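Late entry, written up from scratch paper. The run itself happened at the end of the previous shift, but nothing got recorded in the book at the time, so transcribing now.
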Amino acid sequence: MTGVKEENSYSSILRRLSAFGGVQIFNILIGLLRGKFVALLLGPSGMGISALYTSSIAPLQQLCSLGLNLAVVKEVAANKDNPTALPRILSTTIKLFAATSLLGALVCAAGAPLWSHLTFGDFSHTSSYLWLSLFIALSIAGAGFLALLQGLGEVRTLSRASLAGGLSGLLFGVPLYYYFGYGGIVPALIIFSLSTFLFYFISYRRRIGADRSGITPLPIGWHEWWQMARRLISLGFILLIGALSGQLVGFLINLFIRSAGSIDDVGLFQGANSITNQYMGMLFSVLALDYFPRLSACCSDRAGLREVVNRQMEIVMLIATPLVLLLILTAPLIIRLLLTDHFLVISPLMRWMGIGSLIQVLTFPLGYIYVAKGDRKAYLWIECVWGNLLWLACSVVFYHLLGLIGLGIGFAVRGVIDIVVNYIVCRRRYGFTLSRAAAKVVGVSSVLGIVGFAGSFAPGAWAYWLMGGIAALSGAISAVALLKRLADIP
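Output as recorded:
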């Protein structure tokens, strides 16, 4: 129990977050650099071809992976201290990832002429899709070993592997663009997936080899393997439905905006949505990498689960509030940097989406409880059905009433309703309650967020003075609070 408490201490959580957070930022910079080199060396056409390849194979990769990654993280994390169960789980998951990698490659290769025709309108890219089957296989396998490292709690190892893989992909990929032009796009994608796979695989093998308890994958019988695999696949399938239903609702919202409004409104909404998702998505991905394995490890202990979720709520609100206020303050500047002046009309929309994101930050720790508990029914109805229908309804109603700005207001309203529903469900099903410390952080952060957002409605320069002052105050409060937690000061 001492080890579990140390793992869930504030200082341990913050150290792991800072370790992977820095790597995530560096990987984003690597991605931007890769895009810059593609733009410089291949021009707009090259960027377009590259985007078409990646966007067309992403659904194939997602479908063929069967949603296993999060299910595997849960299973490994829950049994990582069990020397009897863990070797069998490792054996099962490695075979599953090998099978899904092969499935992805076969689906891509068998349908190569179809994918070429659907994406480019002819069969001239059939050979490229044959080669991209290798990319899909390596990507699924790499994501599998990433999930194993995540489940084992190897955040630092995972960070180093992620950084090394991304940097290697950049260093080897750019010369291919330079020497082969458009012909270097597919080889560069394959090399990127190969480098990340190798670094994740090597890191996993070192982790297993260095484990003093002698835990290594063991061969198991077909019946035992299938029982375990079926459990993982059933949970993975529910998670896959959740991801696909979210993508479907996003598509339906765009269709409604186009039919009830205009193509321009679709583009403006996507501009705001893309920036907000990238901005907050980085935070969510970093937090989930560390949070979900810890939550899975203690999901059978109500008191332990309550402590993990409450501490995560404190940390995520302290980090997210100044970031959201900074987004609200600098929305016009961000739009100019990442888009064009034509998109400045979405500044109010982005600010509404910013305050909506702060509300959704509270839902984030609660939503993972369903998966950690393996509560398929709750996840299906709350996350997949209720959450997506609420998103669709709020978007349609508020866009119909208020136009483009209504999409942002609907996003915020959806967040308020969502947090209330998720809190009630988690309280009744799992006995979760908000601790006094977490309630205090949530209360102060919410007030700062709302006041800072309200400041954006002030006239002229007053708006920026108010937003800037509240953002600075929030940053100072969060810094002091995080430093106290880093030192584990009560």
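The mean pLDDT is 82.
(Scratch paper discarded after transcription.)
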